[in-house]
Every structure is written in structure tokens, then in C-alpha cells.
Automatic annotation (TrEMBL):
Annotated InterPro entries: FlhB, T3SS_substrate_exporter, T3SS_substrate_exporter_C
Family: Belongs to the type III secretion exporter family.
Main location: membrane
One Pfam family linked to the record: Bac_export_2
Basic and acidic residues: compositionally biased ranges: 7-27
Protein name: Flagellar biosynthetic protein FlhB
Record bears the keyword Lipoprotein: no
Top-rank taxon: Bacteria
Residues annotated as transmembrane: 34-55, 90-115, 151-170, 190-215
Physiological role: Required for formation of the rod structure in the basal body of the flagellar apparatus. Together with FliI and FliH, may constitute the export apparatus of flagellin.
Subcellular location: Cell membrane
Keywords: Bacterial flagellum biogenesis, Bacterial flagellum protein export, Cell membrane, Cell projection, Cilium, Flagellum, Membrane, Protein transport, Transmembrane, Transmembrane helix, Transport
């Protein structure tokens, strides 16, 4: 029981297939704090970039609004003209600011996890409609983590805001004693720096949250030993199925090999256990090569096909074993066996000539052939 329980613990690192399946479902490591911090920082930096032009626009708007003529006050069309002027003055700086924020928001949300699109994420999940599961999410570990993060964020931002207000308190009060347009530029300058520093405080949360999200995502994807075994079976196939496939492949290879036996020049045999079909074609190869080979039942089948097609069968046990163990199908005979194979082929060619034209019967190949020690099996 102890072994079974331990085998169900998720102790194994997720496989590449598991990670890809999770990604297909839209499950990737994400940090909302990273995206939020990126948006805030981009807004602060963008505000600093467009601040001067925004200040000039605000000065122009205020100067226009506070210097109305008597005729303009009683003209009902002036309201539309004023709104049009405000729009023209604020359009460029605000559009620039919005573009910067939108771009950084997009980048900040794909830095961790990349771009993903999953239709499975849109599908309704019945388990989320279960009140019991809802209570588990509300009072679970993840909810506790989110609560802790919320309190931490509030504390960090609140402390940073208090510190900044305390630090710039006298400068803020001094704005009421300054004149236009200097006080506007000074106010925007203070606002920009306070905004940048306040947003920078969220980096502390990001530095903690990003590693946690990566760790938590990896923990959720961890697998049991049984899951790893099952996945291996699914991807690689069950052993009995793989064995059957290999058997079928061998049978197909043997069938193709047997179709080449009638093209052989000679069958070198052991004489019972080994059989090797050898051919020499000067147009195709510079040396004799193997068309087929086999032992026991395959060797018997090779000899049977050779007899049907009247292919010469030569008994040379050491040579048959040497060729079988050192040469693959459609591979040339090793150089060390050239002499022994040449003797066999010469005998076969002379035997064909004797059978076709008569004359002197060729001398059988010597019982002891020149086979190097490295090729003796």
C-alpha cells in the first residue's frame, strides 16, 4: 500500500508532451502582477515623455477658458468650439501616451508564457459551476496566496505613497504660491516623478510573483510515475504492439529479400544453418555484394528458391558464416573476403560454361579457403 501511495504522488517533472497539452488548453505560467506593473511603468514613462507637450496644451486650454470675452459668454456655439479646441490640444499627447501603454501592456503580458490561443479555454467547465468546488477555490491555498499578494501589494503601494507624499509635501504646498505657467510645469514634474516612483514599487511584487508563478505552474503539471509510464505507452506504443510491428516489418523485409534470390550468381551455404546469396555485377558495383542472407528457416527458404531457379549452391561453411556476420543486405563483400569469394564465383562461372558448352569440368573450390582470422566465426 505504501508503494502504491507513493507512486500516486506527483514527483516527476512534466514531459514535453504534458507541457504542450497544457499549453493547448491555455494553461501557461502567467503573472498578472508583471502585466500590471508593465502598464503602470509604461504609463509613468509615457507621461514623462509627453509631459511637456501635455503641459503646454493644458496652459493653452486654461488660458482660453479664463479669458472669455463678453460676447463669447452669451454665444451658445462657443461650447462646441471650446470642446473642439480641447480635443485638438490633447489629441496628440494623449494618443501618444495611449499607444505606449497599449504596446507595453501587450509585451508585458506575453513575456511570461508567450502568445497562446486556445479554443478549449473558452469552453464552459461544469466543475466551475459546482458550489462545492467554488468554496474550495474561495478557501483554498490559491485563494490564500492571492489574499496575501493583495495585502502585500496594498501595503507596498500605501507605504510608498505615504513616503512620497511626506517627501514632496513642502513642494506640493509651494505650488499655491507660484504663478502660471511655472506652477503647471512644476506640478506636472512633481506628478511625473511621484508616479514613476510609486509605480516602481510594484517591481518588488513582480520580483516575488514571477518565480512563484513559474514554480506553481510547474508544480501543477508534475506527473505521477504511472502517468509517465502511461504517456510513454501512448507515444511509443505498447510493447506487444511494437513487437508485432517489428515482426511484420521483418516479414516484409524478408519477402523483398526473397524476391532478389533468383538474381544471385551463387548461394554460399553452411550447408544447413547459413545461406548467403551473392551477386557480382560490374555495371552496378566494383565488388560482389549480398542480395539475401539468413539462418535456419530463412536459409532453407533461400536454398529452396535457388533450386527452383537453378542457382548454384556452394557449400563453404567458414565463408558463409563470415559473410553472414560481416555484410548487410545490398552491401559489398569486405575486402578481406575478396579472395575466398572470387574463388567461389570463378568456380560457378566455369561450371556454367561447362554446362553450356561442355569441355573440362572445373576444379571444385578448395576445402580450406583463405579467410583471415578476423572474419572467422
Amino acid at each position: 500500500m505504501a508503494e502504491n501511495d507513493s507512486s500516486q504522488e506527483k514527483t516527476e517533472e512534466p514531459t514535453a508532451r504534458k507541457i504542450q497539452q497544457a499549453r493547448d488548453k491555455g494553461q501557461v505560467a502567467r503573472s498578472k502582477e508583471l502585466g500590471t506593473s508593465a502598464v503602470l511603468m509604461s504609463a509613468a514613462v509615457g507621461f514623462a515623455m509627453v509631459g511637456p507637450s501635455l503641459a503646454e496644451s493644458l496652459i493653452t486650454i486654461m488660458a482660453t477658458l479664463f479669458t472669455l470675452e463678453r460676447d463669447q459668454i452669451f454665444d451658445t456655439n462657443q461650447m462646441n468650439l471650446v470642446w473642439g479646441m480641447i480635443g485638438r490640444e490633447l489629441a496628440l499627447p494623449m494618443a501618444s501616451l495611449m499607444l505606449v501603454i497599449a504596446f507595453v501592456a501587450f509585451i508585458g503580458n506575453i513575456v511570461l508564457g508567450g502568445i497562446t490561443f486556445s479554443t478549449k479555454a473558452f469552453m464552459p467547465k461544469t466543475d466551475k459551476m459546482n458550489p462545492k468546488n467554488g468554496f474550495k477555490r474561495m478557501f483554498g491555498v490559491q485563494a490564500l496566496v492571492e489574499l496575501t499578494k493583495g495585502i502585500a501589494k496594498f501595503s507596498v503601494v500605501a507605504f510608498s505613497a505615504y513616503f512620497l507624499l511626506s517627501f514632496y509635501f513642502n513642494d506640493i504646498l509651494a505650488l499655491s504660491r507660484e504663478n502660471l505657467p511655472g506652477n503647471v510645469h512644476h506640478a506636472l514634474d512633481l506628478l511625473v516623478w511621484m508616479f514613476i516612483l510609486l509605480c516602481s514599487s510594484t517591481i518588488i511584487i513582480v520580483v516575488i510573483d514571477v518565480p512563484f508563478q513559474i514554480w506553481n505552474h510547474n508544480k501543477q503539471l508534475k506527473m505521477t510515475k504511472q502517468e509517465v509510464k502511461d504517456e510513454y505507452k501512448d507515444t511509443e506504443g505498447k510493447p506487444e504492439v511494437k513487437g508485432r510491428i517489428r515482426q511484420v516489418q521483418r516479414e516484409l523485409a524478408q519477402r523483398r529479400m526473397m524476391t532478389e534470390v533468383p538474381n544471385a550468381d551463387v548461394i554460399v551455404v553452411n550447408p544447413e544453418h547459413y545461406a548467403v546469396a551473392v551477386k557480382y555485377d560490374a555495371m552496378k558495383s566494383t565488388a560482389p555484394y549480398v542480395l539475401a542472407k539468413g539462418v535456419d528457416e530463412v536459409a532453407f527458404k533461400i536454398r529452396e528458391i535457388a533450386r527452383e531457379h537453378e542457382i548454384a549452391i556452394v557449400s563453404a561453411p567458414p565463408l558463409a558464416r563470415a559473410i553472414y556476420h560481416t555484410t548487410k543486405i545490398e552491401q559489398e563483400i569486405p575486402e578481406g573476403l575478396f579472395t575466398a569469394v572470387a574463388q567461389v564465383l570463378a568456380y560457378v562461372f566455369q561450371l556454367r560454361q561447362f554446362q553450356d558448352q561442355g569441355g573440362r569440368r572445373p576444379t571444385p573450390i578448395p576445402r580450406k579457403q583463405p579467410i583471415p582470422d578476423d572474419f572467422k566465426y
